[in-house]
Amino acid sequence: MGAFMPDLRWGKSEGSVCFPEKLHPEAVVVASVDPGPITVGAAGPEGVLNVREARSVSACLPDYWQPAVAVVAPGRTGCCPYPGPEAVRKEREARSEATASRTIGNRRQPLCAAPHPGPGFTLVELLVVIAIIGMLVGLLLPAVQQAREAARNMQCCNHLKNMGQACLNHESAHRVFPSGGWGWKWLGDPDRGSGWKQPGAAFYGMLPYVEQMALYQLTNSSDSNLAANAKVLAQTPLSLYNCPSRRPAGTFSGGTSFVVGPSATGVSVSPIARTDYCENGGDTYFEHYLDEISYFLKSYTSANATEQKVLAVKQKCNGMFAQGGGISFQEIRDGSSNTILMGEKYLNPTNYTTGSDNGDNEGIFMGHDKDICRFAGSLPYQDRADYAAITNYGSAHSGGFNATFADGSTRRISYSVDLSNFKNLCNRKDGKVVIIDN
Fold this sequence. Notes:
Layout: E1 9-10, E2 13-14, E3 17-18, E4 21-22, E5 28-32, E6 38-43, E7 49-55, E8 68-73, E9 76-77, H1 85-97, E10 101-104, E11 107-110, H2 123-174, H3 202-205, H4 213-216, H5 226-234, E12 251-252, E13 256-260, E14 265-269, E15 272-273, E16 277-280, H6 287-294, H7 300-304, H8 307-316, E17 340-344, E18 373-374, E19 381-382, E20 394-395, E21 400-405, E22 410-414, H9 419-426
């Protein structure tokens, strides 16, 4: 039997038929030359059995498979009887007729050959791994969300920084900051300059200084398509004018009607682009100041006839954007670093996209109104569902809102800021210097 050992094959038994594979170098070989006691040994380097012990076994083998050799490899049990000449012939014929096979790794093996079982997980180990992964996700998710909000907050600050720089560039060119506009009924006009004659507010007036000159020129009075161009202007969103923590730039439900041009051409538009930022209108909101201009000026002619009235309204404003006029540096008696220029406005989250909020139902490029101008009559708030505060500052950020000052700096104002200090920051001429610790 030793002469045949180098040629031994082994494999799992399928009923009474065995399909061979190569002998495992560490296989334990069990040999029997008759149905009686068998010899148990191990294949040595030369294929010679080293007898170890004897035991009785019974095997179900074909009649022509004698003597028998059983092989037990590490990690699995197999049976490979050593066949006689007739069995060898029949085996070879059967193997030559078999065409189905499968590939394991880079080796082609017989279809029924049993591969070595690889390492695996028990059900308990799998459940433990899943529990650990779930716990790690629970710990990491808040940190990821916080990092994303920090990035959005930084982007919001950059928006305000750019708008503040645009206003400063406007002041350098015209010696005044952009006008606060006439009222929500009016759309900006590029032919009306930057002073009290300009019907559009600061978000319109700063367009040339944020690389949007083409948008600024859309409502040129000499254009025969004035009404159509006015719609395009009102429906053009700018990402600069929206806070990424609240809503992306876009047009939102709810429309409005306004007038544009020397003859006050009426235009209706829906949906419309809106902003999340606001001008500083001062420390107190007075509804009738807006009404005096917004509701009674029916054309440029009537506006020209009321210059003194418009300028009188401007003098009542103690913020940075007056209805009907632009503010100069000389009028900021408290100092540009102590006066808020622009900030974020409060908005009810329920109405982010509906246009149902009276503080967010008009467009970006209209004149003076609560949609684009806020006041320090009360504390700023973080956005909260179903709470209306249409004249307040606020934002979707936690802890505070962002604001840019008249010197171009950007700071964070806490929601818990002292109200008197907050009013002083929004009043450009009260003579009180206040330093807010961020």
